[in-house]
Structures are given as structure tokens and as C-alpha cells.
Design goal:
about 260 residues; 5 helices; about 20% helix
């Protein structure tokens, strides 16, 4: 992660290099402007180092132009809104009205997480019965000791505590980040992003070896951004888009509460 100076203010450039046979890597540009956090990302090309020196399908300069465009924000011009409505197919709109929605399932949660993590899990399991207040939850295992747990439950989980994390901080907009450092093979570190909205709590936990402290501004900042965007996806709820449920990942039958 490196800082960039622009006419629109400071920007952070972050990237994750390829993981052979698993992940081609990704590039992100992030900026805070006018009380908002803006992000532009690119994935699909093989990231072998500093993306400014690579021949990407979309260059860092082009990503920066998008990020710093004055039309990029929570409020924009009516012309840009109209152009977006013409461009996107109806089924691509994530904020479909609540009517006709279906109950969220662990398999649908797994499918949603794949949109942000960008990797195929080796194992997917239903761990709903392990959640404090009951609600759909899924466990996804990847290679090299990495795993993702995510779920949504009614109510609020430990509103005044960091749960089991070593440290936690408020990220704004009702989102909280906690982390625990790596204590060895039996107790690898994790990042926990959770938020309370409309009477429900969403949580996303990413576990991997080598976490040494605050992920912001370090090599895990890109991963943290993915987790935060996943948490804030409007489909991440007890009721969700039927298309997401229809595309749910297949899970093995659950016959106990041990998870795994």
C-alpha cells in the first residue's frame, strides 16, 4: 500500500500479488473525500508487483481518473444517474424492493462472499447453529489455512465489547473492525468486521496465518476493503434477492452443531 498525492487530495494505492493457481491478485485505489470513502478496484490481470509498472487491462491512471472524478460520490448529476440506468440490466440492481424477497441461506451467503473474495472455496459449510442469536451463517475454507465465516442475525452482538478480538476500532457508518494477531498454528489471527443496521447484525470474519496487528495501511488493507464492502452489500440481510438464493453454493447436509 502506497500513498499518492493528487489534485483531489490523498489517495491510497493497494495491491495483492498473485497466489499461484489460486488468485491472480487485485488492485485498489481508496480515498476519503467530503465525509465519504471512495474505492475503485481492478482484478483479473496477473498482479506480479507494483501495478503502476504493469500492463493492465485498466491502468492505475484510469482507475485514478474514475476515483477522483467529481461525479463519483453519494450524490451526483441527474445525467449520470440516467446514464447508469440505461447501462445496467435490471437484474444487476442490488437494491431490489423488499417485496418478493426470500430468506437468506448459508449457501446464498457463500455465493455473495464469492463476489467479493474472488476465490473458489475448497469447503463450504452451514454453521448457523453456532451463531449466538440464531441466523444463517456460512464457513468457507480456502488454501493455506485461510477461512471466512459470515452471517446475519437479529439483534445486536456484544454492543459494548470487542467480542474476542485483541483490539477493535469504529470505522464509521455503524461498522466496527476487530483483529487478533497470530499466536501460532493452533490460534491463527483474524479480522472481524461487523455492523448493526435495521435491527440486524452482520459479521464477516477472515482468518489466516501471519496477522500481526492493525490491518489498515498494511498488506491486508485490500482484504479488509473486500470484507467491508461485503458487509455493506444491501443483499446481506435476513431477507434477500431471490436470484442470490437461486445461485446459492451447494453445502453438505448438516447433522450436528459442531461446525468445522
Amino acid at each position: 500500500c502506497v500513498p499518492l498525492d493528487t489534485d483531489s487530495g490523498p489517495v491510497r494505492l493497494a495491491w495483492q500479488v498473485e497466489q499461484p493457481e489460486e488468485d491472480p491478485g487485485y488492485v485498489y485505489l481508496l480515498a476519503d473525500r467530503g465525509g465519504e470513502s471512495h474505492l475503485v478496484g481492478w482484478g483479473g490481470d496477473l498482479i506480479t508487483g507494483d501495478p503502476r509498472a504493469l500492463d493492465l487491462g485498466v491502468s492505475v491512471e484510469q482507475l485514478l481518473a474514475i476515483l477522483t472524478d467529481p461525479g463519483f460520490g453519494m450524490e451526483t448529476s441527474p445525467e449520470l444517474v440516467a446514464a447508469g440506468e440505461d447501462y445496467l440490466p435490471e437484474e444487476a440492481a442490488p437494491s431490489a424492493p423488499a417485496t418478493g424477497q426470500e430468506p437468506m441461506t448459508p449457501g446464498a451467503l457463500a455465493a455473495l462472499s464469492r463476489e467479493y473474495v474472488g476465490e473458489e472455496p475448497a469447503v463450504v459449510r452451514d454453521v448457523s447453529l453456532r451463531v449466538d442469536h440464531q441466523g444463517p451463517a456460512a464457513l468457507l475454507r480456502y488454501g493455506r489455512g485461510r477461512r471466512l465465516v459470515l452471517g446475519v442475525v437479529p439483534g445486536r452482538l456484544d454492543p459494548d465489547e470487542c467480542r474476542t478480538a485483541d483490539e477493535c476500532v469504529e470505522l464509521g457508518n455503524g461498522v466496527r473492525l476487530g483483529w487478533e494477531v497470530d499466536h501460532g498454528p493452533r490460534d491463527p489471527g483474524y479480522l472481524l468486521v461487523e455492523g448493526h443496521r435495521d435491527g440486524r447484525t452482520r459479521f464477516v470474519l477472515w482468518q489466516q496465518p501471519g496477522i500481526s496487528g492493525d490491518p489498515r495501511g498494511g498488506p491486508l488493507e485490500g482484504r479488509l476493503t473486500q470484507l467491508t464492502l461485503l458487509l455493506q452489500d444491501p443483499r446481506f440481510d435476513l431477507l434477500t434477492d431471490p436470484a442470490l438464493v437461486a445461485g446459492a453454493l451447494e453445502l453438505p447436509p448438516t447433522d450436528d452443531t459442531s461446525g468445522g
